[in-house]
Design goal:
The complex is a heterodimer of chains A (about 300) and B (about 675).
Chain A lengths: L1 H7 L7 E8 L5 E8 L3 E4 L8 H14 L11 E5 L7 H13 L4 E5 L9 H6 L10 H15 L5 H10 L4 H14 L13 H15 L3 H16 L4 H15 L2 H20 L3 H27 L1
Parallel strand pairs in A: 3-4, 4-5
Antiparallel strand pairs in A: 1-2, 2-3
Helix pairs in contact in A: 2-3, 5-6, 6-7, 8-9, 8-10, 9-12, 10-11, 11-12
Chain B lengths: L11 H15 L8 H7 L7 H14 L6 H11 L12 H26 L9 H15 L8 E6 L5 H12 L1 E6 L4 H10 L9 H5 L6 H12 L15 E6 L5 H4 L1 H14 L4 E6 L4 H8 L2 H6 L2 E5 L5 H18 L9 H10 L4 H14 L17 H6 L5 H10 L7 H10 L30 H7 L4 H11 L7 H17 L6 H19 L6 H5 L12 H18 L6 H14 L7 H33 L10 H14 L2 H20 L1
Parallel strand pairs in B: 1-4, 1-5, 2-3, 3-4
Family (chain B): Belongs to the rad17/RAD24 family.
Keywords (chain B): ATP-binding, Cell cycle, DNA damage, Nucleotide-binding, Nucleus
Main location (chain B): nucleus
Chain lengths: ~300, ~675
């Protein structure tokens, strides 16, 4: 956004949300919302699932076909595509062709969390800029700046603790800080930093898995996983969170095996349709590994 | 019988057509598995030997039955000589059997029940059911009943629903006025034959023109049927009471049930004589019943529902033997009394369908005399597992019979799941040629299965994917060790993996289902031996898969959030970070539109959390085994349980939600 302002001036901040409609070759209607100004358009094409190819082609075409009227400005528009790593292969190939074709009138900014899922053809056409996660110090700094501007006093310890808990995610850190403000003001240094409910819930679930390994417990855990899923927590996030919690609770020897099975089922989860099958298989696997380990340990003790 | 209203003194052609309808009417619903083809192949284009063979006896029956069948039959076959010539040659045998079927079935009704057996004591239906129907009829036929009763008879095909009604009609002395679906095609043909001019005074003026909708006709029929008595040509004795029987509900109502309900309501206000609906529940029957006769309608206009069970094999045997005895008494030339074991196997293979059983019996009696050499086309499949599991060693002859007359029984989902999950095994000593596993694989050794998993899946009428979902929902209860579950869950995961590609999904789905069922069976090491199958476990409740409702909920709330947060394009971040926090944030500082947004979000998060409560509940429910497969949830008792449950799970988060809710309530008042 700052970059855009550099390019175009303040006009870029007049944002509007638009609904774009597309028709696929099979006559299916698609609808996608975009954020745009006169100079740029931001869209998350992976919203429409497997039909994203159509969106990409049509959208860029329409944007690029109109030349910039105001000649005092730059002679191109900007298209921001988010979550490029979630695009289908099909769409990525389409993107490759489109981005070359309309290079004269538009520029693309692609955002993604990892380039490993972006095809090499696109990677070679782009200038890769890695935006590293902010360090704890930086987050602390940002939080204190914000608080100063808001007219609040934020103790350094609390800022640091928030930054620690935010997993170096600045958005989370700011949200956490805000939540703390609602919870209690003036801040105290040892005040509790609240985590999202679902993370607490997931932690409890992991604890349940650690406590007992039995079919009945697995059934209870399944109920909890279902609950998380209804809260719109994506299955891969659940998987990752579970793994983190479980790993931190188990012995070093087990970690390789656990991570390996987690990777295996995570892969399955990406490919398959019914996430619960794979998550459950992973939990069962972990239970078995953990149980065997505990039994061995007990046997060693005596 | 059915056609008292049809004028019999019409011209020859008309009566031929009329009769073709009549013959079709005689078996309005499926008798055997080849239900779809039967009607198409029914009209025979050749004088079939079997027709000639039976024509003499048809005349014998004529004196008993109400319509002159023999004559009509002759006309009927000549009348249809040009049609359907393509598909009949292929199955001369079938064609023969259809005609015969028709004949004997009417024999069953006309003579078997009414003349020889004479009373409802000999019906194959359970006595209690007959009494139930009878008492209903008695109360609703009595003259002091103001409002007409509506009775709904349900049950599997061939359970004797219509037969009961007819026999009772004879005993209680009332007439049956039956609705017949108008045959549009027939009318069209007729219209063509008469050169595009309708003959006046024909039945069409009564039934209505071609353009009349089925709904309108049905309504007209119901509302006028009770008004007129049958014309008494021979000088009537006593005016009989009447009931209306509707067996073929016009299938337009399947699509438009509300208009059907409207007609019924209207009838219940104005009608005078009781009306009986007969519905057989096949694969789609249950659906039909729920759609056509929903519970609230049943309460509203007082519909009585009596459901019939399949005919028990003992009473079926009795009836079949009686039929045989009657036939023997008649001493017709080409009747060969079947052996007792044959009769038994017929009654068993028909799975409670007495109509199919009688047809099969008839075929069996034919077999010896005619040249129809019956060879089982395929080897006797495991289809008749019902017999197999009962463990009766049958001679091959019976196998053949079952392959003719046997009903293609479909398993109920409940039983199919049970078969997989309980996985009964056979005694290995019964099988001598079993290969032995090498010693390092010893722990994978299992006794032979009694079932074939693929057949079970095939028979329970749902897709493999769905079946796996059911299995997945229920398998945990049946395992005792976590190691077994590891293997089982991996197999399930495998099966999902197999069907990942949409291109080949339709085919691989079956493979996946097979993998997961066999995997589940194999990995349950506690039930590896046949001795273990008899003991343990006991009855466990089965549940519907939660996955599909979950997906639906998820999609719904996703759409909600998408429409609310149009300016967020990254949903993962929105759902995992922003929403959970915005729940606990103060909303007053936001602009009005934003506030509205957040309010809705509050509502949204609140509803999802209440949803999850319910889900939690379900999890508890499963433990308490209160929610069975057939049952819908009972919200009252789940409430109580939640109180217990919420204490254990996430009290902290719940409190936050509630606080937030209060906060926002206050705000609303401020506005």
């Amino acid at each position: 956004m700052c970059l855009l302002r550099e390019l175009y001036g303040s006009g870029v901040e007049k944002l509007r949300i638009e609904q774009h409609n597309f028709t696929t070759p099979s006559n299916k209607k698609l609808e996608i919302s975009t954020i745009s100004s006169n100079y740029h358009i931001e869209v998350n094409p992976s919203d429409v699932g497997i039909q994203d190819r159509v969106v990409i082609q049509e959208l860029i075409k329409t944007v690029a076909q109109v030349n910039q009227l105001d000649s005092s400005q730059r002679d191109f528009k900007v298209v921001i595509l988010t979550e490029v790593d979630k695009l289908t292969k099909d769409a990525q190939h389409a993107l490759r062709r489109t981005m070359e074709k309309y290079m004269a009138t538009c520029r693309l900014i692609l955002c993604c969390n990892s380039t490993s899922k972006v095809i090499p053809a696109i990677r070679s056409r782009c200038l890769g800029i890695r935006v590293a996660a902010p360090t704890v110090e930086e987050i602390t700094q940002v939080l204190q700046n914000i608080c100063k501007k808001e007219g609040l006093t934020l103790p350094v310890e609390l800022a640091r603790r928030i930054a620690d808990k935010s997993q170096r995610n600045i958005r989370r850190a700011i949200l956490m800080c805000e939540a703390c403000r609602v919870q209690q003001y003036p801040f105290s240094a040892d005040q509790e930093v609240s985590l999202p409910d679902w993370e607490l819930f997931l932690r409890e679930t992991a604890n349940q898995i650690i406590q007992q390994q039995s079919p009945r417990r697995l059934l209870e855990v399944r109920g909890r996983i279902y609950e998380l899923l209804t809260h719109l927590i994506p299955p891969d996030v659940i998987m990752r969170g579970l793994l983190q919690e479980l790993i931190s609770n188990c012995d070093g020897e087990l970690k390789t095996e656990v991570v390996q099975s987690a990777a295996f089922f995570e892969h399955r989860l990406q490919l398959g349709q019914k996430a619960i099958f794979h998550i459950e298989a992973f939990i069962a696997k972990f239970m078995a590994i953990y149980k065997r380990f505990m039994e061995d340990n007990i046997a060693d003790l005596f | 019988m059915e056609f008292q209203e049809r004028p019999l003194e019409m011209g020859e052609k008309r009566s031929a057509i009329c009769l073709s309808c009549r013959i079709r009417k005689a078996h309005p619903r499926g008798l055997v598995s080849g239900q779809g083809t039967r009607q198409a192949s029914f009209p025979d284009q050749k004088p079939d030997p079997s027709v000639g063979l039976f024509s003499s006896r048809q005349h014998m029956v004529d004196s008993y039955s109400l319509t002159p069948m023999g004559e009509i039959a002759k006309i009927g076959f000549s009348g249809f000589s040009e049609q359907d010539s393509n598909n009949l040659l292929s199955s001369l045998v079938n064609g023969g059997s259809y005609i015969v079927q028709d004949f004997w079935f009417s024999l069953k009704v006309a003579r078997g029940f009414a003349v020889v057996i004479c009373s409802c004591a000999d019906l194959a239906v359970h006595k209690k059911k007959i009494e139930e129907v009878e008492s209903w009829l008695r109360t609703h036929l009595s003259p002091d009943v103001k409002r007409p009763g509506i009775l709904l008879l349900t049950g599997p095909t061939g359970a004797g629903k219509t037969a009961t009604l007819r026999v009772l009609a004879r005993e209680l002395k009332y007439d049956i006025n039956e609705w017949a679906n108008p045959d549009v095609k027939r009318q069209y043909n007729e219209w063509n034959q008469t050169g595009g001019v309708f003959t006046s005074g024909s039945e069409y003026s009564r039934v209505g023109t071609v353009s009349d909708s089925q709904i309108a006709r049905f309504q007209q029929y119901l509302l006028s049927a009770y008004k007129y008595n049958t014309l008494s040509i021979f000088g009537s004795e006593v005016e009989k009471k009447k009931i209306i029987l509707v067996e073929d509900i016009p299938n337009i109502f399947g699509r438009d049930p509300s208009s059907f309900h409207g007609i019924l309501r209207k009838y219940s206000q104005t009608g005078r004589c009781p009306i009986v609906f007969v519905l057989s529940d096949g694969a789609t029957g249950e659906f039909n019943k729920n759609v056509l006769f929903p519970k609230e309608l049943e309460h509203q206009i007082n519909i009585t529902n009596i459901s019939f069970n399949p005919v028990a094999s003992t009473s079926m045997n009795k009836v079949l033997n009686k039929v045989v005895a009657t036939e023997l008494a008649l001493k017709t030339s080409n009747f060969h009394p079947p052996s007792k074991s044959v009769v038994e196997s017929i009654s068993m293979s028909s799975a409670g369908d007495i109509r199919a059983a009688i047809n099969a019996l008839q075929f069996a009696c034919l077999k010896d005399s005619s040249d129809l050499v019956i060879k089982p086309k395929s080897k006797v499949k495991a289809k008749r597992q019902k017999q197999d599991t009962k463990g009766k060693a049958k001679p091959t002859d019976d196998g053949e019979l079952a392959s003719i007359g046997g009903k293609d029984t479909s398993l109920f989902l409940f039983r199919a799941l049970g078969k997989i999950l309980y996985c009964k095994r056979d005694d290995p000593s019964n099988h001598t040629d079993l290969p032995k596993l090498p010693s390092h694989l010893q722990d994978h050794e299992r006794d032979p299965l009694l079932i074939n998993p693929e057949d079970v899946i095939e028979k329970c009428n749902i897709s493999g994917e769905y079946f796996v979902a059911y299995l997945h929902q229920n398998y945990l209860d049946f395992y005792s060790t976590i190691e077994d579950i590891v293997r089982a869950s991996q197999y399930i995961s495998d099966s999902d993996f197999l069907s990942r590609d949409w291109n080949s999904r339709s085919r691989l789905q079956q493979v996946g289902a097979s993998v997961s069922t066999r995997g589940l069976i194999h990995s349950n090491s506690a039930r590896a031996r046949f001795t273990s199958s008899g003991t343990g476990l006991g009855w466990k409740p089965l549940h519907k898969p939660q996955w599909y409702t979950l997906c639906k909920q998820r999609r719904e709330s996703f759409d909600v959030s998408r429409s609310l947060y149009k300016d967020f394009t990254q949903h993962v971040i929105l759902h995992t970070e922003i929403l959970p926090y915005s729940m606990s944030l103060n909303v007053t500082s936001l602009s009005l539109s934003k506030r509205n947004f957040v309010r809705q979000i509050c509502r949204f998060t609140h509803t999802t959390s209440s949803r999850s409560e319910r889900l939690d509940d379900n999890a508890v429910d499963e433990d308490d085994s209160s929610q069975r497969l057939e049952e819908t949830d009972d919200s009252s008792n789940t409430r109580d349980k939640f109180v217990l449950d919420s204490e254990s799970s996430n009290t902290g988060t719940e409190v936050i939600v509630e606080n937030d809710e209060e906060e926002y309530n206050i705000e609303e008042y401020n506005d």
